[in-house]
Design a protein that fits this description.
mainly beta; 32 strands
Length: about 400
């Protein structure tokens, strides 16, 4: 997949050695924290990107004292439920509170409520999924959940939010191990992927009956085609089939699973490339995603995939900037986040046309234009019902524990 020529290329390099191997969202956050604290000699080299100052509003700074025993360090992107509120998770709780992460609710006006506190060192690494008045997610962590779990959080009338653990993954094949993305709904069942487990120990696609909570492995990855180790959430496309990505050895691949359970490779990345996010399907019917080079200088890409398997690189980021997914906005453009570049080195929000002809940086985190705006944005942006984009940062903010923000392009 040769990068498309683009006059607007971000010239950024991180001193070599970091991000040579694919990492989970949680591992990237931990590694980033280590880099910030212990490596003071990181060099940045920039050339000018077109920059448009969009309106950025900080809705909540974690650990700022406004919420008792607040969470800390959001770990994944947000979702907006039919009630209009946003829901998300954090890696842990603010300093001094201990425990694991939290599951929170945030109103569009920025009022945060802690719905549930997770066990010590247990967190939800991926966005939640709303289904039938419940927030459904996957857990990773030690103890009985060390191989992962599926859970649901439900608000009962006139009562507190209750947590119900539906399934605990084990290393007993063909069960999956280590969930690798959020759940999606297809044909009345919920579907997800795991990086390990399955009949060959190389990953699986599983389904969950939302009524009985029974989990069934529907496909085990064995290689070489499709490749092994699925590393993203699935997408239910307009044709009803499911699409996902594998990390491979690398290279990674994009695969399709039809309603009969047949799985086939749609596209294999060249060289050592591997996808870094799940796919989205645009208004034009084409698929969009992000990938990483895997070789020095660890370039990253936003790409387009047609239904016939033709891939075009829309934009190239030079260096490991941490781009993990794109969202289509109301104007049809793609919006995304990077977590390690920008004028302040704290990440950006960018806008990209679906043909790759236009690229703009909408906001540079930590550049001083918006006080306490956070650093190192996580996950993907979510398009709100008000046509604004919402997201979270892993760090920064008034207390240094991350933020939830709204951006109006």
């Amino acid at each position: 997949m040769k990068p498309k020529s683009n006059p607007c290329r971000l010239q950024w390099q991180l001193i070599h050695g970091f991000f040579q191997a694919p990492l989970s969202a949680g591992s990237r956050r931990e590694l980033f924290s280590t880099v910030v604290l212990s490596v003071a000699f990181v060099l940045f080299l920039f050339t000018g990107e077109p920059t448009t100052n969009a309106q950025v509003t900080i809705l909540h700074s974690f650990g700022d004292g406004s919420i008792q025993k607040d969470g800390a360090n959001p770990q994944a992107g947000l979702i907006q439920a039919p009630d209009g509120n946003f829901y998300g998770t954090t890696l842990t709780q603010a300093v001094g509170f201990g425990g694991g992460g939290i599951i929170f609710q945030l109103t569009p006006a920025g009022v945060l409520k802690v719905l549930h506190r997770l066990a010590t060192n247990t967190y939800s690494d991926f966005p939640l999924f709303y289904h039938d008045k419940a927030l459904i997610g996957v857990l990773v962590g030690p103890g009985k959940n060390r191989f992962g779990a599926v859970f649901a959080v439900t608000a009962y009338p006139n009562g507190p939010w209750a947590v119900d653990e539906w399934h605990t993954f084990s290393n007993q094949r063909p069960d999956g191990v280590d969930p690798s993305g959020s759940l999606i709904l297809s044909g009345g069942d919920l579907y997800g992927t795991t990086r390990g487990g399955g009949s060959a120990g190389m990953g699986a696609i599983y389904k969950v009956d939302p009524g009985t909570h029974e989990v069934t492995t529907v496909h085990s990855f064995t290689g070489p085609n499709p490749a092994i180790w699925p590393n993203t959430a699935l997408l239910r496309a307009k044709n009803g089939n499911l699409y996902g990505c594998t990390q491979g050895f690398p290279p990674g691949e994009i695969f399709e699973m039809r309603s009969n359970g047949h799985v086939k490779t749609v596209y294999q990345f060249p060289g050592l490339q591997w996808p870094t996010s799940g796919l989205i399907q645009g208004n034009d019917g084409k698929f969009y995603g992000t990938s990483s080079d895997g070789t020095s200088p660890y370039d990253e890409y936003v790409f387009q995939l047609t239904a016939t398997g033709v891939v075009t690189v829309l934009h190239t980021f030079v260096g490991a900037v941490g781009v993990t997914g794109v969202t289509q906005g109301p104007n049809g453009d793609l919006y995304g986040l990077t977590d390690l570049d920008g004028t302040a080195g704290n990440g950006t929000v960018f806008e990209l046309s679906t043909d790759g002809s236009s690229f703009n940086v909408l906001h540079n985190f930590g550049d001083g234009t918006v006080p306490n705006d956070g650093l190192s944005p996580v996950g993907s942006l979510v398009l709100g019902t008000d046509n604004n984009l919402y997201g979270a940062t892993a760090g920064g903010g008034s207390a240094g524990f991350g933020t939830v923000f709204r951006i109006s392009p």
